[in-house]
Protein backbone atom coordinates (compact mmCIF):
# COMPACT_ATOMS: atom_id res chain seq x y z
CA UNK A 1 0.00 0.00 0.00
CA UNK A 2 1.39 3.38 -1.00
CA UNK A 3 0.91 5.76 1.89
CA UNK A 4 1.55 8.83 -0.23
CA UNK A 5 -1.37 8.20 -2.61
CA UNK A 6 -3.86 9.08 0.10
CA UNK A 7 -4.49 12.72 0.73
CA UNK A 8 -4.39 12.98 4.49
CA UNK A 9 -2.74 15.92 6.11
CA UNK A 10 -0.59 15.77 9.20
CA UNK A 11 -2.35 17.12 12.26
CA UNK A 12 -1.84 20.82 12.86
CA UNK A 13 -2.46 23.43 15.52
CA UNK A 14 -2.56 27.03 14.26
CA UNK A 15 -1.18 25.72 10.96
CA UNK A 16 1.90 24.15 12.55
CA UNK A 17 2.34 20.40 12.48
CA UNK A 18 2.69 18.78 15.90
CA UNK A 19 3.09 15.20 16.99
CA UNK A 20 1.35 14.28 20.24
CA UNK A 21 4.63 12.99 21.64
CA UNK A 22 8.25 13.09 20.43
CA UNK A 23 11.75 12.71 21.84
CA UNK A 24 14.82 14.85 21.19
CA UNK A 25 18.04 14.09 23.02
CA UNK A 26 16.89 12.83 26.39
CA UNK A 27 13.80 15.06 26.59
CA UNK A 28 10.33 13.76 25.79
CA UNK A 29 7.87 16.41 24.58
CA UNK A 30 4.16 15.92 25.12
CA UNK A 31 1.06 17.93 24.30
CA UNK A 32 -0.37 18.68 27.77
CA UNK A 33 -3.79 17.07 27.28
CA UNK A 34 -5.15 18.02 30.71
CA UNK A 35 -5.10 21.68 29.64
CA UNK A 36 -6.94 21.14 26.36
CA UNK A 37 -9.11 22.55 24.89
CA UNK A 38 -8.48 25.70 26.89
CA UNK A 39 -4.73 25.99 26.59
CA UNK A 40 -2.20 24.50 24.15
CA UNK A 41 1.03 23.81 25.96
CA UNK A 42 3.95 21.41 25.58
CA UNK A 43 5.10 19.45 28.63
CA UNK A 44 8.82 18.62 28.79
CA UNK A 45 9.71 15.37 30.49
CA UNK A 46 13.37 15.40 31.45
CA UNK A 47 13.70 11.83 32.72
CA UNK A 48 11.82 8.54 32.83
CA UNK A 49 10.22 9.36 36.18
CA UNK A 50 8.73 12.56 34.69
CA UNK A 51 7.35 10.44 31.86
CA UNK A 52 5.78 8.04 34.38
CA UNK A 53 4.04 11.00 36.03
CA UNK A 54 2.87 12.24 32.62
CA UNK A 55 1.25 8.88 31.84
CA UNK A 56 -0.27 8.43 35.30
CA UNK A 57 -1.75 11.93 35.49
CA UNK A 58 -2.98 11.77 31.89
CA UNK A 59 -0.87 14.62 30.55
CA UNK A 60 -0.60 12.02 27.79
CA UNK A 61 -3.41 9.51 27.33
CA UNK A 62 -4.93 7.21 24.74
CA UNK A 63 -3.44 3.77 24.11
CA UNK A 64 -1.26 4.69 21.13
CA UNK A 65 0.18 7.86 22.66
CA UNK A 66 0.74 6.08 25.98
CA UNK A 67 2.61 3.33 24.11
CA UNK A 68 4.93 5.78 22.33
CA UNK A 69 5.55 7.63 25.59
CA UNK A 70 6.31 4.40 27.44
CA UNK A 71 8.83 3.48 24.73
CA UNK A 72 10.49 6.89 25.09
CA UNK A 73 10.46 6.57 28.90
CA UNK A 74 12.40 3.32 28.46
CA UNK A 75 14.84 5.17 26.17
CA UNK A 76 15.26 7.86 28.85
CA UNK A 77 15.98 5.14 31.41
CA UNK A 78 18.63 3.74 29.07
CA UNK A 79 20.25 7.16 28.80
CA UNK A 80 20.11 7.65 32.58
CA UNK A 81 21.42 4.16 33.38
CA UNK A 82 25.05 3.65 34.48
CA UNK A 83 27.25 1.92 31.88
CA UNK A 84 27.86 -1.06 34.13
CA UNK A 85 24.85 -3.32 34.71
CA UNK A 86 22.60 -0.89 32.84
CA UNK A 87 19.96 -3.57 32.29
CA UNK A 88 19.34 -3.84 36.04
CA UNK A 89 18.54 -0.10 36.19
CA UNK A 90 16.34 -0.34 33.11
CA UNK A 91 14.47 -3.38 34.45
CA UNK A 92 13.51 -1.39 37.55
CA UNK A 93 12.45 1.57 35.39
CA UNK A 94 10.38 -0.81 33.24
CA UNK A 95 8.45 -1.98 36.30
CA UNK A 96 7.75 1.66 37.28
CA UNK A 97 6.61 2.57 33.77
CA UNK A 98 4.35 -0.48 33.62
CA UNK A 99 2.77 0.41 36.98
CA UNK A 100 1.44 3.75 35.65
CA UNK A 101 -1.68 2.48 33.84
CA UNK A 102 -2.77 -1.16 33.51
CA UNK A 103 -5.21 -1.41 30.58
CA UNK A 104 -3.59 0.09 27.47
CA UNK A 105 -1.83 -2.82 25.78
CA UNK A 106 0.45 -0.51 23.77
CA UNK A 107 2.28 0.51 26.93
CA UNK A 108 3.46 -3.06 27.60
CA UNK A 109 4.07 -3.68 23.91
CA UNK A 110 6.51 -0.74 23.94
CA UNK A 111 8.28 -1.50 27.23
CA UNK A 112 8.85 -5.12 26.22
CA UNK A 113 10.13 -4.26 22.74
CA UNK A 114 12.55 -1.62 24.00
CA UNK A 115 13.75 -3.88 26.81
CA UNK A 116 14.44 -6.77 24.43
CA UNK A 117 16.36 -4.44 22.10
CA UNK A 118 18.29 -3.01 25.05
CA UNK A 119 19.68 -6.49 25.70
CA UNK A 120 21.68 -5.96 22.50
CA UNK A 121 22.84 -2.45 23.39
CA UNK A 122 21.68 0.87 24.82
CA UNK A 123 21.72 2.39 21.33
CA UNK A 124 19.54 -0.38 19.94
CA UNK A 125 16.95 0.17 22.70
CA UNK A 126 16.83 3.91 22.01
CA UNK A 127 16.48 3.28 18.27
CA UNK A 128 13.55 0.90 18.83
CA UNK A 129 11.73 3.52 20.93
CA UNK A 130 11.89 5.89 17.94
CA UNK A 131 10.82 3.07 15.59
CA UNK A 132 7.75 2.39 17.74
CA UNK A 133 6.67 6.04 17.48
CA UNK A 134 7.21 6.04 13.69
CA UNK A 135 5.32 2.77 13.24
CA UNK A 136 2.51 4.23 15.33
CA UNK A 137 2.13 7.06 12.77
CA UNK A 138 2.24 4.70 9.77
CA UNK A 139 -0.23 2.26 11.32
CA UNK A 140 -2.66 5.07 12.14
CA UNK A 141 -2.45 6.34 8.57
CA UNK A 142 -3.17 2.89 7.14
CA UNK A 143 -6.13 2.47 9.52
CA UNK A 144 -7.45 5.72 8.07
CA UNK A 145 -7.12 4.43 4.53
CA UNK A 146 -8.86 1.12 5.22
CA UNK A 147 -11.55 2.66 7.40
CA UNK A 148 -12.31 5.35 4.83
CA UNK A 149 -13.65 2.64 2.50
CA UNK A 150 -16.50 2.04 4.97
CA UNK A 151 -17.56 5.68 5.03
CA UNK A 152 -20.08 6.80 2.41
CA UNK A 153 -20.68 10.38 1.35
CA UNK A 154 -23.27 11.94 3.67
CA UNK A 155 -22.61 9.58 6.60
CA UNK A 156 -23.34 10.51 10.20
CA UNK A 157 -20.74 8.82 12.39
CA UNK A 158 -20.74 8.48 16.17
CA UNK A 159 -17.53 8.06 18.17
CA UNK A 160 -16.81 7.56 21.85
CA UNK A 161 -13.91 9.04 23.84
CA UNK A 162 -10.84 10.32 21.99
CA UNK A 163 -9.17 7.94 19.60
CA UNK A 164 -7.84 10.70 17.43
CA UNK A 165 -4.50 12.28 16.80
CA UNK A 166 -4.09 13.01 20.52
CA UNK A 167 -4.54 9.33 21.38
CA UNK A 168 -1.75 8.36 18.96
CA UNK A 169 1.41 10.03 17.73
CA UNK A 170 -0.43 11.37 14.66
CA UNK A 171 -3.76 10.77 12.79
CA UNK A 172 -5.37 8.55 15.45
CA UNK A 173 -7.29 5.27 15.16
CA UNK A 174 -11.08 5.85 15.19
CA UNK A 175 -10.72 9.40 13.85
CA UNK A 176 -8.16 8.53 11.18
CA UNK A 177 -10.79 7.17 8.70
CA UNK A 178 -12.84 10.29 9.38
CA UNK A 179 -9.86 12.51 8.51
CA UNK A 180 -9.24 10.59 5.27
CA UNK A 181 -12.93 10.73 4.31
CA UNK A 182 -12.99 14.47 4.99
CA UNK A 183 -9.82 15.01 2.95
CA UNK A 184 -11.45 13.16 0.06
CA UNK A 185 -14.30 15.64 0.12
CA UNK A 186 -16.95 13.30 1.54
CA UNK A 187 -19.62 15.20 3.46
CA UNK A 188 -19.68 13.69 6.92
CA UNK A 189 -21.02 14.68 10.31
CA UNK A 190 -19.52 13.38 13.55
CA UNK A 191 -21.49 12.85 16.76
CA UNK A 192 -19.00 13.05 19.63
CA UNK A 193 -19.97 11.31 22.89
CA UNK A 194 -18.88 13.61 25.69
CA UNK A 195 -17.35 10.65 27.65
CA UNK A 196 -17.76 11.39 31.31
CA UNK A 197 -15.99 11.57 33.67
CA UNK A 198 -12.83 12.86 31.92
CA UNK A 199 -14.76 14.21 28.93
CA UNK A 200 -12.19 13.13 26.36
CA UNK A 201 -14.91 13.40 23.70
CA UNK A 202 -16.22 16.83 24.63
CA UNK A 203 -12.75 18.25 25.18
CA UNK A 204 -10.30 16.45 22.94
CA UNK A 205 -12.22 14.89 20.05
CA UNK A 206 -14.33 18.02 19.61
CA UNK A 207 -11.17 20.16 19.70
CA UNK A 208 -9.47 17.99 17.06
CA UNK A 209 -12.50 18.03 14.76
CA UNK A 210 -12.86 21.79 15.12
CA UNK A 211 -9.19 22.21 14.18
CA UNK A 212 -9.84 20.17 11.05
CA UNK A 213 -13.11 22.01 10.25
CA UNK A 214 -15.12 18.79 10.32
CA UNK A 215 -18.82 19.34 11.13
CA UNK A 216 -19.64 17.77 14.48
CA UNK A 217 -21.73 18.03 17.64
CA UNK A 218 -21.03 16.93 21.20
CA UNK A 219 -23.56 14.39 22.42
CA UNK A 220 -24.50 13.76 26.06
CA UNK A 221 -23.35 10.23 26.91
CA UNK A 222 -26.95 9.05 27.35
CA UNK A 223 -28.27 10.32 23.99
CA UNK A 224 -27.04 7.45 21.78
CA UNK A 225 -30.21 5.33 21.90
CA UNK A 226 -32.38 8.33 21.08
CA UNK A 227 -30.34 9.19 17.99
CA UNK A 228 -29.90 5.62 16.78
CA UNK A 229 -33.60 4.80 17.24
CA UNK A 230 -34.36 7.81 15.05
CA UNK A 231 -32.04 6.62 12.29
CA UNK A 232 -29.62 9.50 12.81
CA UNK A 233 -26.42 7.41 13.02
CA UNK A 234 -25.05 5.47 10.03
CA UNK A 235 -22.08 3.90 11.78
CA UNK A 236 -20.03 3.98 14.96
CA UNK A 237 -16.23 3.90 15.09
CA UNK A 238 -14.40 3.65 18.42
CA UNK A 239 -10.81 2.99 19.43
CA UNK A 240 -9.45 0.22 21.68
CA UNK A 241 -7.15 -0.03 24.65
CA UNK A 242 -6.66 -3.80 24.53
CA UNK A 243 -8.09 -6.52 22.30
CA UNK A 244 -8.24 -10.15 23.44
CA UNK A 245 -7.49 -13.02 21.06
CA UNK A 246 -11.22 -13.82 20.68
CA UNK A 247 -11.97 -10.24 19.54
CA UNK A 248 -13.37 -8.87 22.84
CA UNK A 249 -12.40 -5.20 23.08
CA UNK A 250 -11.56 -3.10 26.13
CA UNK A 251 -12.20 0.57 25.48
CA UNK A 252 -13.28 3.68 27.38
CA UNK A 253 -16.12 3.15 29.85
CA UNK A 254 -19.48 3.41 28.09
CA UNK A 255 -18.33 1.77 24.85
CA UNK A 256 -20.15 -1.49 25.68
CA UNK A 257 -23.45 0.36 26.20
CA UNK A 258 -23.08 1.99 22.79
CA UNK A 259 -22.35 -1.37 21.16
CA UNK A 260 -25.51 -2.92 22.67
CA UNK A 261 -27.60 -0.03 21.39
CA UNK A 262 -25.93 -0.13 17.97
CA UNK A 263 -26.75 -3.84 17.63
CA UNK A 264 -30.36 -3.20 18.68
CA UNK A 265 -30.79 -0.60 15.90
CA UNK A 266 -28.61 -2.32 13.25
CA UNK A 267 -25.96 0.38 13.26
CA UNK A 268 -22.55 -1.04 12.15
CA UNK A 269 -20.14 -0.87 15.09
CA UNK A 270 -16.45 -0.72 14.16
CA UNK A 271 -13.34 -0.73 16.33
CA UNK A 272 -10.14 0.84 14.96
CA UNK A 273 -6.80 -0.26 16.40
CA UNK A 274 -3.31 -1.33 15.31
CA UNK A 275 -1.88 -4.81 15.93
CA UNK A 276 0.09 -3.36 18.87
CA UNK A 277 -3.22 -3.11 20.78
CA UNK A 278 -3.95 -6.86 20.49
CA UNK A 279 -2.96 -9.05 23.41
CA UNK A 280 -2.96 -12.67 22.32
CA UNK A 281 -2.18 -13.73 25.90
CA UNK A 282 -5.66 -12.58 26.87
CA UNK A 283 -7.94 -15.38 25.73
CA UNK A 284 -11.08 -13.31 26.33
CA UNK A 285 -12.00 -9.90 27.68
CA UNK A 286 -12.26 -11.42 31.18
CA UNK A 287 -8.45 -11.52 31.26
CA UNK A 288 -8.14 -7.76 30.73
CA UNK A 289 -7.37 -5.67 33.80
CA UNK A 290 -9.73 -2.72 34.08
CA UNK A 291 -8.19 0.39 35.60
CA UNK A 292 -10.12 1.86 38.55
CA UNK A 293 -9.44 5.58 38.85
CA UNK A 294 -9.99 8.15 41.57
CA UNK A 295 -13.58 9.05 42.55
CA UNK A 296 -12.54 12.71 42.31
CA UNK A 297 -12.73 12.45 38.52
CA UNK A 298 -16.47 11.79 38.85
CA UNK A 299 -17.18 14.20 41.70
CA UNK A 300 -15.28 17.20 40.31
CA UNK A 301 -15.04 18.84 36.91
CA UNK A 302 -12.37 21.18 35.63
CA UNK A 303 -13.31 24.03 33.32
CA UNK A 304 -12.65 27.56 32.16
CA UNK A 305 -14.10 30.39 34.27
CA UNK A 306 -15.35 33.68 32.81
CA UNK A 307 -12.09 35.22 34.04
CA UNK A 308 -10.09 32.82 31.89
CA UNK A 309 -8.80 30.64 34.75
CA UNK A 310 -8.91 26.86 34.69
CA UNK A 311 -10.66 25.75 37.90
CA UNK A 312 -11.84 22.54 39.49
CA UNK A 313 -15.33 22.52 41.03
CA UNK A 314 -17.50 19.95 42.83
CA UNK A 315 -20.43 18.89 40.62
CA UNK A 316 -22.00 16.18 42.80
CA UNK A 317 -23.72 15.95 46.16
CA UNK A 318 -21.08 16.85 48.79
CA UNK A 319 -20.01 13.80 50.78
CA UNK A 320 -21.34 11.21 48.31
CA UNK A 321 -18.99 8.50 47.10
CA UNK A 322 -18.39 7.63 43.46
CA UNK A 323 -16.93 4.73 41.53
CA UNK A 324 -14.80 5.26 38.46
CA UNK A 325 -13.99 2.23 36.28
CA UNK A 326 -12.04 3.69 33.35
CA UNK A 327 -12.82 1.00 30.75
CA UNK A 328 -15.32 -1.71 29.90
CA UNK A 329 -15.16 -4.76 27.63
CA UNK A 330 -17.35 -5.07 24.57
CA UNK A 331 -17.81 -8.76 23.68
CA UNK A 332 -16.83 -9.64 20.09
CA UNK A 333 -20.47 -10.50 19.21
CA UNK A 334 -21.34 -6.82 19.24
CA UNK A 335 -18.53 -5.75 16.92
CA UNK A 336 -19.04 -5.56 13.14
CA UNK A 337 -15.33 -5.41 12.34
CA UNK A 338 -11.91 -4.28 13.52
CA UNK A 339 -10.05 -1.81 11.31
CA UNK A 340 -6.32 -2.54 11.58
CA UNK A 341 -3.27 -1.42 9.60
CA UNK A 342 -3.43 -4.80 7.85
CA UNK A 343 -7.05 -4.50 6.77
CA UNK A 344 -10.53 -4.88 8.21
CA UNK A 345 -11.10 -8.15 10.03
CA UNK A 346 -13.95 -9.91 11.79
CA UNK A 347 -13.49 -10.08 15.57
CA UNK A 348 -12.71 -13.77 15.90
CA UNK A 349 -9.66 -15.87 16.72
CA UNK A 350 -9.11 -17.13 13.15
CA UNK A 351 -9.01 -13.68 11.56
CA UNK A 352 -6.95 -12.24 14.40
CA UNK A 353 -4.37 -15.02 14.19
CA UNK A 354 -4.17 -14.51 10.42
CA UNK A 355 -2.98 -10.88 10.76
CA UNK A 356 -0.24 -11.97 13.15
CA UNK A 357 1.15 -14.63 10.79
O1 LIG B 1 -8.17 6.90 29.72
P1 LIG B 1 -7.66 7.29 28.38
O2 LIG B 1 -8.05 8.67 27.97
O3 LIG B 1 -6.22 6.99 28.18
O4 LIG B 1 -8.49 6.31 27.48
C1 LIG B 1 -8.07 5.79 26.31
C2 LIG B 1 -8.90 6.26 25.22
O5 LIG B 1 -8.74 7.37 24.77
C3 LIG B 1 -9.92 5.44 24.65
O6 LIG B 1 -10.37 4.38 25.31
C4 LIG B 1 -9.72 5.27 23.18
O7 LIG B 1 -10.95 5.08 22.63
C5 LIG B 1 -8.75 4.20 22.74
S1 LIG B 1 -7.09 4.67 22.74
C6 LIG B 1 -6.79 5.72 21.43
How would you explain this protein's 3D organization?
The protein has 357 residues and is of the alpha/beta class. 36% of the residues lie in helices and 19% in strands. A hairpin with a 4-residue loop joins β10 (242-244) and β11. The chain has helices spanning 48-56, 63-80, 86-98, 105-118, 122-148, 176-183, 200-211, 224-229, 255-264, 296-299, 349-356, and strands spanning 12-13, 16-17, 21-24, 27-31, 42-45, 156-159, 189-193, 216-219, 235-238, 242-244, 249-252, 269-272, 278-279, 300-304, 310-314, 327-330, 337-340, 343-345. α2 runs antiparallel to α3, α2 runs parallel beside α4 and α5 crosses α6. The protein has 11 helices and 18 strands. The chain has a 7-stranded mixed β-sheet. A 4-stranded mixed β-sheet has the order 13-10-11-16, with helices on one face. Strands 3-4-5 form a 3-stranded antiparallel β-sheet. The protein has 2 domains: 3-140, Four Helix Bundle (Hemerythrin (Met), subunit A) (Up-down Bundle), CATH 1.20.120.420; 149-355, Translation initiation factor eif-2b, domain 2 (Rossmann fold), CATH 3.40.50. The protein is globular, with a radius of gyration of 20 Å. The chain binds 5-S-methyl-1-O-phosphono-5-thio-D-ribulose (MRU). 5-S-methyl-1-O-phosphono-5-thio-D-ribulose (MRU) binds next to α2 and β11.
Amino acid sequence: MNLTTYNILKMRVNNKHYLTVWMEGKTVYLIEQNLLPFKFQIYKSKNYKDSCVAIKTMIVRGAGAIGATAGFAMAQALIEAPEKNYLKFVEKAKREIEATRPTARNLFYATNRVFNAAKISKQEGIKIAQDIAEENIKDAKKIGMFGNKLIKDGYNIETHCNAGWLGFVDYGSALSPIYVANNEGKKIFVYVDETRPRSQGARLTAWELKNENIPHAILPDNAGAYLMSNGKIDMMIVGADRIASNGDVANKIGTFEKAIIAQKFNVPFYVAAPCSTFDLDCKTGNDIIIEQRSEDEVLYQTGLTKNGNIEKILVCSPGSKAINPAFDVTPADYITGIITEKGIIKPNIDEIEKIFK
